[in-house]
Amino acid sequence: MNSNTEGGDTARDEARPTAEHLSRYQRSYQMTTDQPERFFWLWQEALAHALLLEQQTERSFPEHGGLTALQMAEGARAHARFYAFLLAEAPARETGHFERKIMVAEAMAFDEEEIRRTRTPAMVEAAMQQDARELGITLNKAQMPPGSPSRH
Question: Segment Disordered: which positions (predicted)?
């Protein structure tokens, strides 16, 4: 192990981030800087693609490793979850950001398959609830009759 003692810095060289690490961190920072409009749009797009792909159960994609439409749909859902999480992660400081979190939380709350697959719906709802407390907003859940097609 090498130590650098110039200037009193005794950190181990192996622990220092390499140029590759720094490039990765730069990309992550630039991609994940709070952008609620962008994250919401990307969530919507990926979810729409997943829903469309799920309707094409017989289709396969030889140009994409031979994956089936259902496998591609699961990949699209994974992207949707990622963007939902990014949207939820940053505290909402503006009404528009908070409203987008509500829309994502509501959509995910009614998707039973998504609830079985992942914990993202619960995380988005928890973030939304915390934002409501910090913004001084009271949220109330409306009772829905079983089988009701309307969420509003």
Answer: 1-22
